[in-house]
Amino acid sequence: MSKTILVVYAHPEPTSLTRLFVTETVRILEQQGHVVLQSDLYGMGWKATFDEQDFPNRINQDRLDFIQESQHAYTNHQQTLDVAAEQDKLLAADAVIFHFPLWWFGMPAILKGWIDRVYAYGFAYGYKGEGNRYRYGDGILKGKRALLSVMVGGPVEDYSPRGINGPLEELLFPITHGALFFPGLDVLPTHAVYGSGKLSNANVEKELATWHLRLNHLFNESPIPFRRQNGGEYQFNILADHIAAGKKGLTIHIDN
Amino acid sequence: MSKTILVVYAHPEPTSLTRLFVTETVRILEQQGHVVLQSDLYGMGWKATFDEQDFPNRINQDRLDFIQESQHAYTNHQQTLDVAAEQDKLLAADAVIFHFPLWWFGMPAILKGWIDRVYAYGFAYGYKGEGNRYRYGDGILKGKRALLSVMVGGPVEDYSPRGINGPLEELLFPITHGALFFPGLDVLPTHAVYGSGKLSNANVEKELATWHLRLNHLFNESPIPFRRQNGGEYQFNILADHIAAGKKGLTIHIDN
After folding, report:
1. Mean pLDDT for chain B?
2. Could you tell me the residue ranges of all domains in chain A?
3. Buried b (16+ CB within 10 A) or exposed e, B97-130
4. Which of B159, B146, B147, B148 is nearest to B194 (CA)?
5. Which position among A42, A76, A237, B249 has the lowest Cβ density within 10 Å, counted as fewest Cβ atoms?
6. B112, B161, B239 ranked by CB distance to A248: nearest
7. Local mean pLDDT, 10-residue blocks, chain A (256 residues)
8. Is 0.95 surpassed by the pTM of this model?
9. Residue B188: exposed, middle, or buried by beta-carbon count in 10 A (0-12, 13-18, 19+)?
10. What is the per-residue pLDDT across A32-86, written as a single tens digit (0 to 9) for each?
11. How many CB atoms lie within 10 A of CB B245?
């Protein structure tokens, strides 16, 4: 069955590895009969900084309160057109794929600014005006899937379970869990290419072939088993004592 | 003895809690006889997006390779003036304090863009042209201190050791360890204010007083004991088997 996939990407150089992956993603998914929507953040000149320009019709002219203005703008259809368009794409999509290079262990600023601005109050948080009631597995994007495709300059060893940078999936937890699972997306394990700046042409082809296989399973691969806020394992937003008993930290929120 | 402190902050609203903290920081440190440098990212209209405009004199016009151009621009004094000015401030400072609201479990895009752009190759990475030789405790900012002051909208419970968001210090590891300790900064434990949007005036005063006490110990508080890459505990950038034996994840890189 034909699906709709939103591809969000953050690299200005058409010949970069990030963009080669984007091209492959679009080609393969369209070949499979899917509809592909694209958000080329650099190409669109996406405004990274969340500021007063995001609120052309303020509820409070005297003091800029982001949450208050975000709620007002979203609820009253007073958002800027670029933000509303991205929200519409998210709502239309069955899956969202993010392609970006890992910069300082996180997203490039332009992509962080996509999250900051598109994730309005009432949309990605404060869903249904009920504060934190719907999040982490519930929310406006529930039932859709997300997948990060990350180009990592450093070697895989540095990101291994005891590698000096920390394991990649834990470094990305603020994104996978905090930004994607939060509004309800099912998040697939991150796809990473290490040593991305130094790949031979043969290895680029190999990496693209591996990615092709990942894409083939976009809709049947198991997501990261993050625990749902409303799944009975949390009591007042703290993990119940008998779950992952005696443990703490980011990884207890994954049901492994 | 008089020191120089750089204060980097990311909130456009002068009456926001973030900015009240900034004002207090400047007031207290100047009162103590220190020199305070400020980087008001919103006020400066800081360019968040790292792009081709960062390289007015390219080594390669055909293809934008960020690392290559960053190295070329930094080495040959071809950087944009805004980036060079921030690097100069960092070099002049004995400590750097970052004031920002936590947005989606990380920095606002404008601050991430400060890191992306100011952290040039040859400066924050690739120091002395030696790849990864000097990092995590060694590097150009060695001997200086860093401190995050973070305004967190949610309640403290959600960020507790078993709280649903994950512990704050682990969520911030990509920043404290990955962006600050990496080029050599000694990083103090993060100062967080929770429920930052709903504080009564009395509680704001209380939080400012607590912050004042933190500032008083800026130069004698113990930093987070991140393990130094070149301190003998890593073998080929993987933690030696006998250190934190049998454990894995972000926290093994802290010598607790």
Report:
1. 98
2. 4-223, 225-256
3. bbbbbbbbbbbbbbbbbbbbbbbbbbbbbbbeee
4. B159
5. A76
6. B161
7. 97 98 98 98 98 98 97 98 98 98 98 99 96 96 98 98 98 98 98 96 98 98 98 97 97 96
8. yes
9. buried
10. 999 999 999 999 999 999 999 999 999 999 999 999 999 999 999 999 999 999 9
11. 9
Whole-number Å distance between alpha carbons of A87 and B90: 38
CA distance A199 to A211: 15
Residues forming beta bridges with residue A103, ordered by sequence position: A106
pLDDT at B1: 83
What is the rounded distance in angstroms from the CA atom of residue B226 to the CA atom of residue B228? 6
Residue A230, both tokens: 């409303």
Mutation site for B-interface testing, chosen from A65, A250, A254 by largest number of B Cβ within 10 Å: A250
Percent of chain A that is helix, strand, coil (3-state, to 5) = 35, 15, 45
Answer yes or no: is pLDDT of B221 > 90: yes
**Side chain identity, residue A164:** I
Given this model, what pLDDT does residue B250 score?
98
| Cβ <8 Å between A104 and B136 | no
CB A120 within 8 A of CB A74: yes
Could you tell me the two tokens for A154? 């450093």
Question: For B32-72, what is each residue's pLDDT tens digit?
Answer: 999 999 999 999 999 999 999 999 999 999 999 999 999 99
Q: Which residues from chain A sit within 8 angstroms of residue B66, using beta carbons?
A: 101
Angle ∠(B103,A154,A166) on CA atoms, nearest 5:
55
pLDDT for A1: 83
Q: Are B253 and A164 in contact (CB under 8 A)?
A: yes
Please judge whether B116 and A107 are an interchain contact, meaning their C-beta atoms are less than 8 angstroms apart: no
Q: Where are the alpha helices (DSSP H) in chain A?
A: 17-31, 41-44, 66-75, 81-92, 109-118, 168-171, 173-175, 201-216
Torsion angle, alpha carbons of A90, A92, A97, A99, to 10:
-60
Chain B interface, best mutation among A112, A115, A199, by max B CB count within 10 A = A112
CB contact under 8 A, B177 and A167: no
The DSSP bridge partners found for residue B18 are none
State the smallest CA–CA distance between residue A94 and chain B in angstroms.
22
